[in-house]
Structure formats: structure tokens, C-alpha cells
Predict the structure.
Amino acid sequence: MGEAHEGAGRKVNRRDFLKLGGAGVAGAALLGAAGCGGGGGQGSKGPVDITVAFGRESTGTLAKLISKFNKQNKGKIKVTWRHMPSDTGQYFDQIKTEFQAQKTNIDLIGGDVIWPAQLAANGWIIDLSDRFSESDRSKFLPGPIQSMTYQGKIWGVPWFTDAGMLYYRKDLLAKSGFKNPPKTWDELKMMAKKVMKDQGIQNGFVFQGDKYEGGVCDAMEYIWTNGGNVLKNNNSNTVIIDQPGAISGLTTERSMVTDGVAPQAVATYEEPQCEPIFLGGKAVFCRNWPYMYGLIPQYKKTIKPEQVGLAPIPVSDGNHTHSCLGGWNFYISALSDSTKQDAAYEFVKFMTSPEQEKAFALNASILPTLKSLYSDKEVVSKVAPIRLNKTAIQSTRPRPVSPYYSDMSLDMQEQFNNSLKGTTSPKKAAKTLQGQLTQIIKQAKNA
Amino acid sequence: MATVAKKRRGRGWLKEEFGSPDRRAAYYMVLPVFLIVLAVAFYPVVDSIWLSLHGGTATITGPFVGFENYATMFQNSNFQQGLVDTIIFTVASVTIEFVIGLGVALAINRSFKGRGLVRAAVLVPWAFPTAISAVMWRLMFQDQIGVISYVAHALGLISSPILSNTHLLLIACILVDAWKTTPFMALLLLAGLQTIPEDVYEAARVDGANAMQRFLRITLPLLKPTILVAVLFRTLDAYRVYDLFWVMTGQQLESLSTFVYESVRISQLQFPEGNAAAVFIFVTAFLLALFFIKVLGMQTSTEE
């Protein structure tokens, strides 16, 4: 961190230039905003204004919960929602730009589970270990808590979660004589082949294999369910992706294509490409996030809810099931003053209370992070993925927790995709990644 | 007169330039523009070059490292891939666009019924924002619903999915770019064609020159300045390609510009390399323009 101070002089120059360069409209606006920002809240007697950043939420539930909070805290705290890009990459890019320039009005980030280490390492969010006590933490699912544990500290509060799961066609399996969904990858291939042959279904299994963040999630699940991992204990500095477990995971993924179960083009699929294939009745199995269950009504002509089953991600013999953890947490900006940070935490407590998480789960069909809600009758009966697949949600694992996750992800996206396309063998992809990730960790230590 | 004044050096020159109130006023008039150019063009370029010689991250400028960033950049396989793809894309797409564009320009330069309508219709692909047409084409290339994939498979032209094969994707990018920018090329060339006076052709016809001779001896030489401008525009545009590669290929193909974006915006460690690549693009594009102007004799102004 010593270099941070050495570089400070230069940084000021660049920032000064921003002001100077925009001496016209932009600069004046920037300076003006900065001037107001400092005085807001504590100077006047009015409520503390805080801005929470979050992407799109189409059901309007978040907006309702915010106005409910504002009503309850009238005169004390006023929360404004700043809409961010719904694409996680673009959202993160925007956050980085503003926090790098130290010019942001965001006090609270509703952010992706893969961000905390990166935000924390830059000193942009505050350590919540004291406020968010261990007994409070134990009320939440372990996966999301793991995702925001970095250097032994807790950097966020889990808001809602997401887990990869296996969608299957109950009716097709039953017709070909299978009562239960597959438990292992071999079973999945066997069942898929039989159903494809018996009933002339085009695709056995579709999943997200494109070169993008989702491709990492899917590949991680193959690796974990084959007993492998990318980093030892998931967050240390030891890369173990060239070990047999990880290689056999990538081999299993590639075998879906070579065995004719998944189409060759699965290496170009993201979530939107999987939807019409599975919900359009053209596939036996599909790996996707819980949200796809909510789309069934849009495909009335081709599929009915009773035809669709949900199961945990299959495994290779003798291993445990693991789902890739998705979802969003709350992170509090380190650039805001302490009054605002306190107010932001009040809002976080409100949003993650059982009552509001329940409302959010029921109205926006998202998965809550509070353990207690998974035995709440109303939630269980109304949120189908919880009713159908509690196991998957409770066996989530975060992707590698690292301040250089973005760099790791770029390399993993490329190698996982190459291995799935067949341009590189799984073994070679794993070996290449071993070198690349080790290099990133080494560089990160020197930085 | 002005040249004589400039040649006179020393104190007299200063006095002459700034002595007269008229001249001073002129300088005051130009000053704001000069400052703006300094701030928005000169400073960022110099700052990028300066940054590309340092280590560090997007937040912190590290120690001076000389040309080390350039060395690591050239060793980066993604950069190499981006360079190769960009060069192939630029040469192929500009060539195709020029040949077809010239043909189209010659065709719509004649007078025929509905000429105005045809000229407007030709511009439709160009009017689409690239990112949007890229999404559209991506859908058509998709394996399960894409019409192009369907036809290509039915004809037995390809055996693997287009979107996961980088060779096919590069060809696809070249063709889509040709589809999109040929109209632009045609329009520029058409403007040039219309400046050639009809009586030159008439004289040639009287002298017994055939169509081929007229094209080679009159049209091409008189069109040369327009051709150079059009080709330079397109070359620099194609050389900086970003949106088509990023959106249509789903980040499968690397160009120089996508490499810069990945390095400075997504990666936390490659910032200096990305900066070096940005400077590399700037310098090479500059040299390319210089080549057009100096070697090929492109006119940059209407003066002799």
C-alpha cells in the first residue's frame, strides 16, 4: 500500500486536469456537485440524504420498499435510488470509474457477489465486521457470507441470492421410464440420450458455455462437482486448477458436446439462448438460474409448470453437489462521511429484516438470504424454486474471492470456452490457467 | 507579404506580430480555440504517452518503467491476436467496400428513373447504429434460430457453429462491415464523380476513346483525390473497429480496441499495457494518415 502515497502527487494532477479541462459546463457542474456533497446532511437540520445504487428491478418492489423506509424514517433519513446498468460488467465499470475519480454520490452499493474483494482492496467500501456481528451473520446462508469474507473481514450484508440449478422435463423422463432426475453427470448423459432417441427431442442438455462471466459459473460447477477447485479453500493464494479434479470437471463439460448430449453451439450460449430451447420444448435438461422458472407462463404454448422439475447440479461419483453462487449484497461506501454510513446501515438493516426480505421474495420472486425464510410456509409455497430445490440454494459456493477476480475471470472465460469448443484440450486449458492465475496472484502481491 | 514578414527574425518579428492592435485582436480571437485544442487534444495524448511509460493501476501511477509496457504488450497473446485480426479485417473490408462502392457510385451516377429513391435506399444499412445491426446479425448467425446458419448448413458450406469459430467470425465481421459501410464509400465516391465535368467525356468520345479508356484515363485520375480521402477515412475507421467485434462476436474476436478496453476497464492489472496499446493505435493510425498524405499525395486542402 506504500505506493499509494507515492503516487498521490500524480493523481492530484490528473484530477486537477479534469476540473481544468472541463472549465466549461462539465467542470463547473462537477465542482458544484462536490461543493454541495460535503455540506449535505449534517449542515442543515433536514434528513440525511443517502443514495443507493442498484440496477433494474422490473416488479417495482424495490421502489415500494424504499418509499416505505422513507416514510418510517421521515425527517431522519431519505433514501434515493440511483438506477445503474443492469449488466453487471457495465455496472461495475461505472462504479470503478466514479470511485477511482473519488467523485461519486453513491453511499450504498447494491452490488454483485463477485465484487467485495475488488472493492475492499481499493479501499472503496468499509469493513462491516463490527456492525454486522457474528450472531447476526449466522442468520444468513453461508454461501453469501463466504463471498464477502476477504482478509478475514466482512465487507457486506447479503441481500438476495441466486444458485445454479438443473431444470429437467418430468414428463419426458417419465415417458422414457425414469422416475427421478439424474444424480450424476453420467446418469444425465444416459437419460438425455435415451429421451432424445425415444422421443425425438433435439437437444439433451443446454447450459451457458459462452466466453463470459456466466461461462465461468457453469464451468466452476463442473469443476466443484468433480472434486476440483480453482484456488485452495476457495480463497487462498494457492492455485490448484491443474489438479485432477478440475481437469476431470472440464473433461466432463466437454464430454457433453463430444457425446452428442449438448449441441456444439453450447459454447456460444448465454442464459437468453437457453430459455427458448428449454422452454420451447426442444431440450431435456437445462442448467440455469431460478429466474427461468418465472418465464414458464410466457411459453404457454410449449410448456406447463407441471412438466418442469428442478434438481441440484449433478455430480461425478462420490462428490458433493455445488451450485455457483450468484446474487447481490449491500456494500457501504468508504468515501461517504460517517453520518451517511450510519444512515446507510440503517437502511441495510431494514432491507435485510425478515419482513422486507419476505416481501421482496414474494413480490419479485427472488431468493432471500435469511435462513429462517426457507421454513416460512408462505415463502416456500409461493416461491417455486425454494419449494422445488432447497438443496441447490443451500449448497452454493462463491467464485474465487480475490481482489484481482476480474483478471482471473478474463483468463478463465477464455480457457473454459476454448476447452468446451474443443480448440484446447481440458488438460491444456487447466495447465495454461494454472500458469496465468499464478502469475496474476504474483503480480497482485507486487502491486 | 505574409511570408516575407515571417522570415524576418529577431525583435522586429515579435513587434510586427504583436505590435499592431489588429494582429493582437486576431490572436485574442484564436486563443480560446488554441486553449481548447490544447486541453482536449494535446493534453490527453501527451498524458497517455506519459502513462504508458509508467507502471501502476488505474488509480495509482507507478514508477517510470521506460518501454517495458510496450515489450509486455507485444508479448501478450491477446494483443498479437488483436493486431492480426485488425489488420486482416482492415485490409479485406476496405478493399471490398472500395470495389463495390465504386461500382455502386458509377451505377447511380447515371440518370435513370427513381434515381433519388435508389440513392436514399442505398444508405439504409449505414444509417443503423453499428451496435444494433451487430445484434441483428448475431441473431441471424445463431445456430438454432439463425437464418444464415440454417442456409449455410443446408448448403453444406460450414460444419461448425459460426459464433464459436473465430475464422468464420472474422469472415462474418468483414462481410457485415462491407454490408454496412459500402453505402458510405459509394456516397463519397459519387460526390467525387459529380465534380467531373461532362464535357471532358464528350471530348474523349469525339476522339474515339472507348468506355474502358474513358474510365482509366479520365474517371480514375480525376477521382483520385476523392478516392484517397474515402479510403483513408474507411481505413482509419476499420483499424479502430470496436463495436462490431465486441457485440457481434460476443467477445470471441479480439481487435486492438477491444484489447485496450479489456485492459484498462475490466482488468485491474493490465492498465499500463492497455495504455501502451492505446498509444500504439494512435501512433500507427497517425503514420497511416501520413503515408496517405505524403506518399500517395493526398491533398489536405484545396490550395495548390
